[in-house]
Amino acid sequence: MKILVLNCGSSSLKYQMMDMETKSAMAKGLVERIGLPGAMLTHRPKGGEKEVIIADLPDHTAAIKLVLQAVIDPNFGVLTSLEEIDAVGHRVLHGGEKVSGSVLVNAEVKQAIEECFELGPLHNPANLAGIIACEQMMSGTPQVAVFDTAFHQTMPPEAYIYGIPYELYEKYKIRRYGFHGTSHKYVSQRAAVVMGKPLEKLKLISCHLGNGSSLTAVKYGKSVENSMGFTPLEGLMMGTRSGDLDPAIVPFIMKKERISGDAVNALLNKKSGVLGLSGVSSDFRDLQKAADEGNYRAQLALDVFVHDVKKYIGAYAAILDGVDGIIFTAGLGENSPLIRRSICDTLGCIGVSIDDEKNEAAVGQEVDISKWGARCKVMVIPTNEELMIALDTEEIIQKM
What we know:
The radius of gyration is 21 Å and the shape is globular. The chain is built from 15 helices and 14 strands. With 400 residues, the protein is α/β, with parallel strands linked by helices. The strands form two sheets. An eight-stranded mixed β-sheet has the order 5-4-3-2-1-6-8-7, sandwiched between helices. α10 packs across α11. It is an enzyme of class 2 (transferase).
């Protein structure tokens, strides 16, 4: 089976053409600046040279049309015709409370995606546009929606309800939804393989650490807590997001700076986090370089981030009533031995003890970095959301 995986952002589109026999990408690419001047597609066929195509792409329909042309191009494509595509798997940000798993796209599913526009204003409209574009250009090819929030729909009410009047939850569905679900689901499944134990018998903490970061408590294969909330702003301090914040700070800033609520929202999402705290960068590599050179604020940003992760790990260990394994994934989690060591150095109380040599060598590869005999395993597991989307899509298509 061959599955096209699409991840439509507000002005971008990532894609992979997956061969499910080998569970690998035949080609992958990125479309940038959709709806803006200078739009371009970068296409990378497996084992081939990178191809860059400059084009006028006013919307996602035009972008997907260009992707499909690239996939079957006689010079650098990987298929002879679009009929070879058995299904399309779409990453969709928000499914609200209506969607608790990956689903075959139909009118009801599209309506559910549209109803969550207000909850995911940057992504859900683009996700739906991608689905509609594929319907127009690939009539008859089944499509599956894989929701970023779906994995967290197993959280119990005590984990997702906020301490606000219950009527506001009933009226507006203001609650904690959690995000990065596809990534957390994939790495928790891989952790069970690495540990050689059934997922249904494990208590895991998954740390998705990157420019956007979140932690998930996974109990016996199900999400019971995620650090992100009603939006991805809650939780850890991130690249440009503030993370957890006293809500009274919002009206305080509005009054003192004489700015609107929308302006504060933009400040907390785009100008805060390690960028705002350090004044250097949202890229942790830049922060580490600056900290090594004696920059106090850069070091402070790193220290706050590490503190936040430790705090959540401790809380989740209590909620899980013990931890069998901790997973580090995503750009920072997979590639920064220093951050992993800094986080783990005071977690001996829950059985964590990492091997420094294994940790230093573990860059972008799937490996157990624990010392022999450690009660709580610590693993580095590269995330693969595209493969998880393809696997969910394959499972649904096979049941049709």
